[in-house]
TrEMBL record:
Keywords: DNA-binding, Iron, Metal-binding, Repressor, Transcription, Transcription regulation, Zinc. The keyword Transcription applies. Binds 1 zinc ion per subunit. Binds 1 Mn(2+) or Fe(2+) ion per subunit. This is Transcriptional repressor. The lineage of its organism: Bacteria, Bacillati, Bacillota, Clostridia, Peptostreptococcales. Belongs to the Fur family. Zn(2+) binds at residues 101, 104, 141, 144. GO terms for biological process: negative regulation of DNA-templated transcription; regulation of secondary metabolite biosynthetic process.
Length: 147
């Protein structure tokens, strides 16, 4: 985590992004909870614990800046709320895929990219050059499926 913070800091410095204590607190929350795909409101609730004076507008603005710099990626589940995760290095850029539980809302990540062969087939069939894909699977997580 220390490592990621340093990489992130370097990137932010390159772009002239100023690390204020509030922004730093937001970034730390993001790094600590990266697997949770937090929304701005959830980030706000977590940051407020250590940083009670922070406003929701600051969180929105910071997320917007981090997005412009290209160090976070957004996950849109079409539920009116955008979730974020830090996405730093090249292998993060092709985004992993997500499994979304219809029952409890849990979001899991698929590490393997199994779609290369499908891409190739589509390219051959439709003469369409695929540059990227974004896939979400909806279903039941192991816990909900047991019920
Ligand atoms: Zn579930
Ligand atoms: Zn993710
Ligand atoms: Zn993929």
């Amino acid at each position: 985590m220390v490592n990621r913070m340093n990489i992130l800091k370097e990137k932010l410095k390159e772009t002239g992004f100023k690390i204020t204590p509030q922004r730093r607190a937001i970034i730390e929350i993001l790094l600590k909870n990266n697997k949770d795909h937090l929304s701005s409101e959830e980030i706000y609730d977590l940051v407020r614990v250590d940083c009670p004076e922070i406003g929701l507008a600051t969180v929105y603005r910071t997320m917007q800046l981090l997005d412009e710099i290209g160090v976070i990626s957004k996950l849109n589940l079409d539920d009116g709320c955008i979730r974020y995760e830090i996405s730093l290095n090249k292998e993060d850029t092709h985004h992993h895929h997500h499994l979304i539980c219809k029952n409890c809302g849990k979001i899991m990540e698929v590490k393997e990219d199994l779609l290369d062969s499908i891409e190739k087939e589509i390219q051959d069939l439709y003469k369409f050059k695929i540059l990227d894909h974004d896939v979400k699977f909806y279903g039941l997580c192991p816990k909900c499926n047991k019920r």
